[in-house]
Design goal:
Oligomer: heterodimer
Radius of gyration of chain A: 14 Å
Shape of chain B: globular
Structural class of chain B: mainly beta
Distance between the termini of chain B: 31 Å
Helix content of chain B: under 10%
Number of strands of chain B: 11
Largest interface: A-B, 24 and 29 residues
Radius of gyration of chain B: 13 Å
Structural class of chain A: mainly beta
Order of helices and strands of chain B: EEEEEEEEEEE
Number of helices of chain A: 0
Helix content of chain A: under 10%
Chain lengths: 117, 113
């Protein structure tokens, strides 16, 4: 079974600064997807960014980028120019690409990101 | 707004009771997933339906069941409720021909008293 580990229960960053959230995962599969989801106080789960394991290029979405290290099974999220609206719980998630897409997401425990004004 | 609709938003019920949570997926999405978020267990995948058929099972208790109807909406049935079933229950949907990300509804907050 796959596992996802987020070792930072809480992180704090000054507004406009850069912060990196860590995520490691364990799998024996070679083809899979990785995601970062954001859960603000409204509790809505919002997709931040996704990465296909077969792609070597790191995904980027505006101020959000990832550092995907497949051999190390590491998938960190970098948030540049942090904004107050970035304050939320961030979840790293894994999804197998095997089995015809029949599978759910495996989530880490989450990192609570605090933005200091 | 993700386009996934869950009702009700909040539900309070007593131990031993049965409840039904409802989910309408995004237009065109054939896959529906149910997740449970609790303080103890975090976010856990429960079950997936694809075009009316059960496709994958996660950590779903035998007291829980789900189904997907011809109009693609889904219901999660929770019976013989226990205090530990109190949690946020999410529904998510994903496009037909894609392994892409799932889009989540706003969740149903279930409180068992």
């Amino acid at each position: 079974a796959q596992t996802v580990t987020q070792s930072q229960p809480e992180m704090s960053v000054q507004e406009a600064e850069t912060v990196t959230l860590s995520c490691t995962y364990d799998t024996s599969e070679s083809d899979y997807y990785l995601f970062w989801y954001k859960q603000p106080p409204s509790r809505q789960m919002i997709l931040v960014i996704r990465q296909e394991a077969y792609k070597q290029q790191n995904a980027t979405e505006n101020r959000f980028s990832v550092n995907f290290q497949k051999a190390a099974k590491s998938f960190s999220l970098k948030i540049s120019d942090s904004q107050l609206g970035d304050a939320a719980m961030y979840f790293c998630a894994y999804r197998s690409a095997m089995g015809g897409g029949a599978d759910g997401l495996t989530f880490g425990k989450g990192t609570h990101l605090i933005i200091q004004p | 707004d993700s386009g996934v609709t869950q009702t009700p938003k909040h539900l309070i019920t007593a131990t031993g009771q049965r409840v039904t949570l409802r989910c309408s997926p995004r237009s065109g999405d054939l896959s529906v997933y149910w997740y449970q978020q609790s303080l103890d267990q975090g976010l856990q995948f429960l079950i997936q339906y694809y075009n009316g058929e059960e496709r994958a099972k996660g950590n779903i208790l035998e007291r829980f069941s789900a189904q997907q109807f011809p109009d693609l909406h889904s219901e999660l049935n929770l019976s013989s409720l226990e205090l530990g079933d109190s949690a946020l229950y999410f529904c998510a949907s994903s496009p037909r021909d894609s392994f892409s990300e799932a889009f989540f509804g706003q969740g149903t907050r279930l409180t068992v008293v």
